[in-house]
Amino acid sequence: MNKSYSICFISFFFLFLMSMLMFMMMMYFIMNNMVVFLEWELISFNSVSIIMSVLLDWMSLLFMMFVMMISSVVIYYSKSYMSSEMNLNRFIILVLLFVFSMILLIISPNIISILLGWDGLGLVSYCLVIYYQNFKSYNAGMLTALSNRIGDVLILMVIAWMLNYGSWNYIFYLEFMKHDYEMMVISCMIIIAAMTKSAQIPFSSWLPAAMAAPTPVSALVHSSTLVTAGVYLLIRFNMLLEGMFFFKLLLLLSGLTMFMAGISANYEFDLKKIIALSTLSQLGLMMSVLSMGMPDLAFFHLLTHAMFKALLFMCAGVIIHMMSDMQDIRFMGGIGSFIPLTSLCMNISNLALCGIPFLAGFYSKDLLLEMVSMSMLNMFIYFLYYICTGLTMYYTVRLVMYLMVNDYNLLSIYNLFEEDYVMLKSMFILLFMSVVSGSFLSWMIFYDPYMIYLPFNMKMMVIYVSLIGAYFGYLVSKMSIYSVNKFIFTYKLSNFLCVMWFMPNLSTYGVIYFYLKMSQNLLKNIDMGWTEIYSGQGVYNIMKKYSSIYMIFQMNNFKIYLFSFILWMMLLLLMT
């Protein structure tokens, strides 16, 4: 166990130091407006050379700093959270592979090295989702891997289409090949690939299913690695995609994803799934802002969101541990009395998610919504944004009420334990970043201030919808959810809203039913039918029958030998 702990500490220390180094490099690059493009020749054989390209600019360095900081804190947190795990080394190595795949994707200006990182994320995420080996984990892992596989195939097709150009360094072609037919096909494929990784409609069902992974993995996946890969890819390809019709379609789909996730979170009782659906809602926000041609704002929200979402998952992990691995929020309540410091972290990260002023989420969300108000969009998209902001407040207040305010509902005699200081130390690092990172990034990234001029009511719209959402969240947590359903919706409609608009049925259960039925018939009629008779069981029965006859001859009985001799002589006489 000591060896495992030392690997945890070494990984934490190395990644944290690297994140600080990336931060210093990023400051230098942003102050001097620098971009470094490195080419490293791996193999040269006759006229064939394999070259690894690396792009370092302020964006890739800043994102790497966030990924390394969050992963270092998550590994330190795992030291305590996974302390009862026999194979802690294996878990840490998988997490490090995951981080390495993400970093490869971040620094790649080349579509082939992007595929390596992209595919690495998909494969390692499968290993991490099925880490607790049971049927639920296996199903979730398969759904996650196969949904991400669609994106991998599309990126392979992009590689094939880019054979029309001189090399796979896409970064050189974005500007002057913008209106080329091949580039339009490539950009459509890139958008669909990004939608699979960032779980936009119709690929949303894998994101809540991936909650079968250990909580430290959820904290890493939902903040800065797997789900943000699609957003980051679109930020890099943004120059190519502006003005495309498909981008307008992405705006609609991501807006609907945001709306669907916000509503589903209000009907969910699983603590981790509520936070996962909240991530899905924020991803929809990032994608829709990208679709409007504001990549810097989307990147800004991606970074601020990463900090408080990782903290939210880590707090959820402590609560689940304390509740004897219970994840249903109806059994929780009054936990602020038992674990005050974790509750503090939980509440601050929840407030940051809601965009309460001067926390990390406020700087990005407020700016995003005001830029949406300024842009030339239709009313449908405008109201969709504000309704989703109200829904964020709705499910957050509902969650806080269920966890902190309502009565404790688990067991009448229960031995609650103290907070773990290893977990608290890691959470406090993210708590500090959740408070500070928004203002710090807004000063650093946007050195040219945006001029936002709006009427008073449009300016106050965020406050209006937040207050309405908070009030509804309070009402729902005080009343029974079933009475609210009867009061507002019919049963069928609430069922539709509860299961993510039947997305799991459409993408999983509905698709696999016919294949499973067909395979059952094949198993019954072929594997257990004719094949069995003419191969396994049939041959076995024939050999068994003959061996029982041979066994009679091997009993060394004189009467049998005499009888067989007479029989043989009679046969000879008949034949002659």
Automatic annotation (TrEMBL):
Group of enzyme by EC: translocase
Species of the source: Pyralis farinalis
Coiled-coil regions, chain positions: none
Residues that span the membrane, as ranges: 7-30, 50-76, 88-107, 113-132, 153-171, 183-207, 219-239, 245-267, 274-292, 298-320, 341-363, 383-405, 426-446, 452-476, 496-516, 558-575
Recorded topology in the membrane: Multi-pass membrane protein
PANTHER family: NADH-UBIQUINONE OXIDOREDUCTASE CHAIN 5
NADH:quinone oxidoreductase/Mrp antiporter transmembrane domain segment(s): 108-383
Protein task: Core subunit of the mitochondrial membrane respiratory chain NADH dehydrogenase (Complex I) that is believed to belong to the minimal assembly required for catalysis. Complex I functions in the transfer of electrons from NADH to the respiratory chain. The immediate electron acceptor for the enzyme is believed to be ubiquinone.
Location of the NADH dehydrogenase subunit 5 C-terminal domain: 395-576
GO process terms (BP): ATP synthesis coupled electron transport; electron transport coupled proton transport
Catalytic reaction equation(s): a ubiquinone + NADH + 5 H(+)(in) = a ubiquinol + NAD(+) + 4 H(+)(out)
MF (Gene Ontology): NADH dehydrogenase (ubiquinone) activity; NADH dehydrogenase activity
Residues annotated as signal peptide: none
Classification via InterPro entries: NADH_DH_su5_C (IPR010934), ND/Mrp_TM (IPR001750), NU5C-like (IPR003945)
Organism superkingdom: Eukaryota
Keyword terms of this UniProt record: Electron transport, Membrane, Mitochondrion, Mitochondrion inner membrane, NAD, Respiratory chain, Translocase, Transmembrane, Transmembrane helix, Transport, Ubiquinone
GO cellular component annotations of the record: mitochondrial inner membrane
EC number: 7.1.1.2
Protein name: NADH-ubiquinone oxidoreductase chain 5
Subcellular location field: Mitochondrion inner membrane
